[in-house]
Amino acid sequence: MERSPLVIFRDATVMNGEMAVVYGLEMTILPGELVYIVGRVGTGKTSIIRTMIAENRLDSGTGEVCGYPLQKLRKRDIPRLRRRVGVVFQDFQLLMDRSVRDNLSFVLRATGWKEKERIDRRISEVLKSVGMETKAHRMPHQLSGGEQQRIAIARALLNSPDLIIADEPTGNLDEETAEGILQLLRRINIENNTAIVMVTHNKSIVQRYPGRVFVCEGERCREIGGEDILRIGDDDF
User: Fold this and answer.
1) What is the mean pLDDT of residues 79-94?
2) From 3.40.50.2300, 3.30.1330.60, 3.40.50.300, 1.20.120.790, which CATH number describes the 1-84+163-237 domain?
3) Percent of the chain having pLDDT more than 90?
4) At what angle do helices 100-110 and 145-157 cross, to 10 degrees?
5) How much is the pLDDT for 111?
6) Cβ of 18: how many Cβ atoms within 10 Å?
7) What is the pLDDT of residue 234?
8) What residue segments make up the domains of the chain, in order of their start?
């Protein structure tokens, strides 16, 4: 059965503010795919994923994410698009003045959930899925970096997204903790058939967890494959 793409860019110009940073972007991502976007600082990686969630405008060309056309996206449709996409940040971005449970409840209520029993049940489900079911009462500052990132992943899973965008999800973690986060994301990718788009500067991640690879350089972003992936050098990161 043919799968409909979750992400489509055709000859797209990606912006960072008022400045174009990537020209002629061609990208198609299907359900269940693991996709990396790599490149040196300032080459447009984060601008591409911000465009996917309608934080950055699409200057020209066409783009579509989860069925929503980015070039003519209505303001009222942006929250609907973002319910279909979970985002995991390098710096976690948890609300530090409230508990884990209240962090997650805040997101659910903001995206239209109203019944307390249903909210509580969904929070328990996502915390269990990331191995944090005993941490609901904790404040973020009482958690380690790895635990905070697991909560951030639980937050991304709340609305059962078709796509998770992970922006340097292991950048602030030690090697052992980072490996646990990567294994968790890969399990979600395989078991839930959730597509994952990951921006990373870590070459070993790409080598240990194979997926499709897009390299940003020279105001372009192109997919590479086969032996080109094996030949990726430190300069590409």
Assistant:
1) 89
2) 3.40.50.300
3) 76
4) 20
5) 86
6) 7
7) 62
8) 1-84+163-237, 95-160
